[in-house]
Here is the input.
Amino acid sequence: MKAVLFRAHGGPDKLSYEDLPVPSIGLDDVLVQVKACALNHLDIWVRQGNPAYPMPLPHVSGSDIAGIVEQAGAQVESVTVGQKVFVSPGISCWKCEQCLAGRDNMCRTYGLIGAMTHGGYAEYVRVPFRNVLPIPGNLTFEQAAAFPLVSVTASHMLFALAGLQHGETVLIMGAGSGVGMMAVQMAKLAGSRVITTVGSDDKIPKAVILGADAVLNHSKEKVADRVKLLTEGRGADVVIEHIGPEVWESCLASLAKGGRLITCGATTGAEVKLDLRYVYSRQLTIKGSYMGTRAELVKAAELMGQGRLISVIDRTYPLKEARAAQEQMLSRKFFGKIVLTV
Here is the structure.
């Protein structure tokens, strides 16, 4: 099979388009013929080398996968050959206390397809059968690959951790990112007032179409000042953040008293400054978020099938052009998801 892989950590130049053996499956596995695989910043971190994601090389990235079931193991249940499916990115044991309580993203063995195992930058991928779900509604393979990781992340941040309520104001950083794009839609569906940010004026109408009530160009405006102006000096009840040091101080300054900041990423670096006096005197809550539960993904898929959430796809690339796709992601000159087609 054809696959895009890297044999050493580094830049996009380390990616190569090569022939690999088709994966063999176990009793509880399925083999999926990949039709589409969406990019995530996780792919960049894994390629660059990250101690949180140790893996043998060569490695095939790609966590967001949609395709057709090619083979099914002897002990596979409720999955049939020829079925159109998308893949749940998170792998857990389904036996431990956390998994049985519905908190599978807290499983001690939790990992991600494309990070701890070979992923979807290939013609075929082997995954546990429990990670295969039917594509909802009339979604294309590209649309089905573009929503799983970002939708489960956004849902977990907004509702499980932030406890976002109808009528509250939420600031969502980076509407053009995958998580931002999905969080804007989910927060609007929940009846919240949505303020979001973009990096260029051409992205403003796109964010408005998704449901944003106000869109700030962070390259031209001081985000915290504008948030305070839009909220009559009060600030946002919730801030959804996945960027890191570049926006950290403005995120904290944008919060109302008693506000909640939820962070799930660090695309601009790993370390931030924090004045504890500001945190406790304003009674702020800061929470870290990592992925979400299978139940949250199933609910997001239901909303996708109903057309109440949509996958925003900036552009697609053929598999052999994965290097150009990752370079496009690094440029930040996109809105929504970048998808590889196979």
